[in-house]
UniProtKB/TrEMBL annotation:
Residues 4-177 form the Carbohydrate kinase FGGY N-terminal domain. It comes from Qingrenia yutianensis. This is Uncharacterized protein. The lineage of its organism: Bacteria, Bacillati, Bacillota, Clostridia, Eubacteriales. SUPFAM superfamilies: Actin-like ATPase domain (SSF53067). Keywords: Kinase, Transferase. One of its GO terms (molecular function) is sedoheptulokinase activity. Residues 225-408 form the Carbohydrate kinase FGGY C-terminal domain. It comes from the Bacteria. GO terms for cellular component: cytosol. GO terms for biological process: glycerol metabolic process.
Amino acid sequence: MNTIGLDIGTTSICGVRINAESGKSEKTVSAKNDFWIDGAPFERLQDAEKIFDTVLSLANELKDENTAAIGITGQMHGIVYLDKSLRAVSPLFTWQDGRGNLPYKNGTYASFLNSFTGYGNVTHFYNETNKIIPENAVLYCTIHDYAAARLAGRKSPVMHVSDASSLGGFDIKNNKFAVENPFLPETTDTAEKLGEWHGIPVYTAIGDNQASFIGSGCNDGCVLVNIGTGSQVSFSVNEPITADGLETRPLSDGKFIAVGSSLCGGRAYAVLEGFFEKVLKMCGVSQEPLYEKMADEIGETYKTGISFDTRLCGTRKMPEIRGSIKNISTENFTPRDMILGCMHGIANELYCLYKSGGTNCTKLIASGNGIRKNRHLQNITENTFGMKLHIPSLCEEAAAGAAIFAMTGCGIYKNLETAERIIQYDLR
């Protein structure tokens, strides 16, 4: 018996078929998510219908006669408007959309709602204020809520609390939105069966942060470091906490995780690689991506005097802040030190967010291609956190988490704690 997990990421869409007994991947498929739509400089829009068509194609590749359930996850915070027949009538306004940081009254649209740009309810507030909501729109939801509802053949989506909280203005203690908004769908905090696709039950979509937490085998006492385009640090808490740079998000069935997000994360390393490419181009040298050469340049010693602040995209709370490079000398102004400084900066930002939560975890787990493919960043992160690093054997943690979440919905496992025991880790 197996379940399918589908993950709608910002740059790629992937799916896995997980054996429910062994926890091993039976098949993995993926496709690029390059369905960007041109807009104003502050906009980051994607074609929702093309995304769904890709999800449908991947689901068809993965299903077999032993598939018991389908789970879906994807990029949180963003929204797509739907009409009464459950068809997208707008682009996907992604989590990277910047309209919330535009001026409004004495601040910005986001600050007026005490929220952040890219969060769905901020995006909607801007659209409503500027009268650009599609005329036939009746509600909005995340892209993976949309995909799940379409697969299940529903007339309206059901939003898991993990995604509801990502839109902003959500009361996580009482599992409801703090304000009345007729455009918001109903919510649930369980893996609820939405319907069937080719006879296979489809379950509630879940936010990709929570899905990665599940798919990495995290539980009490674990801290998850996820490094991709952005990066996050997450750990379980018994109740909502208040700490600088952290927000508490619902997991499922009354459980919570504390999350600290870096808007740049792995992207900072990609920006540095792009800088090196531009230098070579300036010298008339054409060069393939330099990641392998950057890794070779480091060697096995990780000391550097450079202090690299990798907050190149600001933070959610302070979008205007920018990164910096300090303590440069004639000795350390080298490519090697820049590379090391950048990786230390990525790890340090996440470690500071983790420490602000006042917790002491005993197990460090890493996910995301930004750290999976970089052994030096693995070592630096391990040294920074002072814990041995565990890397899940399942490479697509968010998709795997969606598949495991569906396992609890269809009754293969009674709860997440039981289901997560099938997760295995690679030896380093």
